[in-house]
Specification:
By secondary structure, this protein is an alpha+beta fold. The protein has one domain. It has a 3-stranded antiparallel beta sheet. A hairpin with a 2-residue loop joins strand 2 and strand 3. The protein is elongated, with a radius of gyration of 17 Å. About 10% of the residues are buried. The mean pLDDT is about 95.
Length: about 80
């Protein structure tokens, strides 16, 4: 059977300050049997551009990242960066 590859968003995790941790799985199949899987993770902060993300990621960000959540995240980041 030919090998095929599939790339899917396998996890969207909401972190403490509203960041989204995205896990993409790259799966290799021999016929219908998965023979390998690799993961790649990245994190999006409230207010980040999600236009190139998977539709599900965009929808979660739109629901979660209210103006209040984005402002609070930016305030905490600015506070943490002060000397």
């Amino acid at each position: 059977m030919p090998l095929t590859e599939q790339s899917v968003i396998s996890s969207i995790t909401i972190l403490e300050d509203g960041q989204l941790q995205i896990r993409r799985s790259r799966r290799v199949f021999d016929g219908s049997t998965m023979i390998a899987e690799q993961y790649h993770r990245h994190v999006l902060a409230p207010g980040d551009d999600t236009s190139v993300e998977d539709t599900r990621v965009q929808q979660v960000a739109q629901l979660l990242w209210t103006p209040i959540v984005v402002a609070e995240y930016k305030r905490k980041r600015a506070e943490a960066l002060r000397p």
